[in-house]
Input
Amino acid sequence: MPLRAFTVLGIETSCDETAAALVRGAGSGPGEILSNVIFSQLEEHRPYGGVVPEIAARAHVEMLDGIVEQALADAALKLGEVDAVAATAGPGLIGGVMVGLLTAKALALAAGKPLVAVNHLEAHGLSARLSEGVEFPFLLLLVSGGHCQLLGVEGVGRFRLYGTTIDDAAGEAFDKVAKLLGLAYPGGPRIEALAREGNPKRYTLPRPLFGREGADFSFSGLKTAVRQVTLEGEVRAADLAASFQAAVIDILRNRTAAAMAMFVCDFPSAPSPAFVMAGGVAANGAIRSALGALATARGFSMKVPPPQLCTDNAAMVAWAGIERAQSGLFDPLDVAARARWPLAKNGEAA
Ligand code: KG4
Ligand code: ZN
Output
């Protein structure tokens, strides 16, 4: 039986983006993005070189009402015309998560619509179903400022954890190395641009956990090694950025290859399964082409959502809301905001 199409309002406030979106869809996607409004608080946080939770929460309070109104107006919809309201309920900076979730509860109550409390990681994880209509099961590499995980995704709420970072997330490593090189926050795009002009072989840097059993990641030793190079004297920033990015690529490729082998064991009958990259770091062109080549060599087809759906956004939250709503997974109005909320039972506590 074909699934019913839902129109869902999504709200995202777990980090430094205040966002609201309306998405319509049914089944495995792709969905139709009716509106997707994002206000980035980057300028507010830039002077501090990272996200300041108090500043973030206050900015969400100030911006969110107007952004929800804008999202409804862009979609030419009234609140009464949506089927459900979905909001990120964690994991993330708790002050911000509470602002978004409370707003969603108020809107759901006022309009008499059901509420869906969405896990931010699941929203990233399902985003390739929204944009590309990827089918279950698929292998997911979630790489952002807060997360670095390899997961087998069997269905809504059904994940197998293959690997996770034992220290920093990949995006965090980009941001910290950018800071060492005197580059502005967020560091990922700046390192990528600088690396294009650099020699990736100029500095010898470690590849922690490379070749080890399992598919876990570690980046803190790499970051420390970069700091050591900067302390030893004059550096050529482009060469150091390129050498760092090359090390990150080697780590991601090696750990992803290990997870691909585990996935094939778990799902031997999936023909040419999708390998999905999601999260802010998936916007990196060099990482995409390296992992795309790996995917092809291993019989996977790589799918990456477009850049505006890779970084934090509310369309992916609305889409996760649609998928959960279709399984009847609504939440009561007293559902709690969660700073930590791992996707898989044995998972990293995000
Ligand atoms: O998914 P996201 O918007 O937020 C969360 O962390 O949930 O990801 C932001 C992260 C930052 O660490 C940023 O430096 C990184 O993604 N990033 C990149 C690139 N664009 C964003 N890292 C490497 N290369 C990029 N082009
Ligand atoms: Zn995110």
In short: The chain has two domains: 6-129+309-326, 137-304.
